[in-house]
Amino acid sequence: MSPQSNDITVTRLTGSIGAEVRGVDLARDDGGDAFAAIHRAFVDHSVLVFREQSLTPDALVAVSERFGPLEQHVLKQFALPENPDVFVVSNVKEKGKPKGAVRAGQYWHSDCSYMARPTLASLLHALEIPSYGGDTMFASMAAAYEALSATMQGFLDGLTAVHDYTHAYETFFSKFPDRPPLTEEEKAKVPPVEHPLVRVHPESGRKALFVNPGFTRSVVGLSEAESRALLDFLFDHARQPDFIYRHRWAPGDLVIWDNRATWHLAIADYDMDEPRHLYRTSVAGDRPIRPAERTGRAA
Ligand code: OGA
Ligand code: MN
Prior knowledge:
A hairpin with a 6-residue loop joins strand 13 (about 200) and strand 14. This protein has ten helices and 19 strands. It is an alpha+beta fold and about 300 residues long. Strands 1, 2, 3, 4, 5, 6, 9, 17 and 19 form a nine-stranded mixed sheet that branches. A three-stranded antiparallel sheet has the order 16-10-18. Strands 12-11-15 form a three-stranded antiparallel sheet. The longest helix has 15 residues, at about 225-240. Helix content is about 25%, strand content about 25%. It is globular, with a radius of gyration of 19 Å. The structure holds N-oxalylglycine and manganese (II) ion.
């Protein structure tokens, strides 16, 4: 065994979500022998924090690919020109043009839940961070599901919800002139999709809520009023402090999260004149599994 796999430590950050991993330099061997322990911790804790990393775009891609093949975001203009697997989250402007997506994720969401195969994992590496604010919050949708009554769980297990990227534009981005609307070509790539409202994690077997305020439009088979009331109840329930880890960024941080079991939210409380600049990669995911599929019962 290499010294790295002996030295690696995993420390939980809250009672429900998140762990900090120490003793690994991801640029040196992109996880190397330590990767099995890192992967186990990722499944167990849903969010992993690595401090003081220094990753070039290629090194970030190499680390990310340990978790699976990568995918590129529908918004191609925010990809790094020299490395399109890297998506730039940034408020920095060059010649008046933003260098990356401004206002990315400033609502609770699970990345690309509006795709037929939503993103499995996202990795975010901080390069520049404002002097205050700009934290990211993560919420455990497994803990949120487990805190519901068995009767409510049973009801939710059989439901299906509609996810749609244009929902975020209608409810959020349209308020901000610095975020251009989706083009017709982009819209054509992201038609509304249906997903189980509760999904089973293929690796842990844990169930998690799979609806989110950013992208979930409605619940199939309910009236509009029923759907709105149920989603609002679930959204209020799921963002309780007990289910949340709040990450205070420092340059060099790498955070990876499991979109199959979490939400996240970028807090927009920083001074927009101070740079906030991060690189993100996305690990491609699978079709969400319904509880009934897992137990072998007919849906
Ligand atoms: C993302 C995202 C959050 C942040 O990159 O998927 O939502 O804090 N970013 O920048
Ligand atoms: Mn996001």
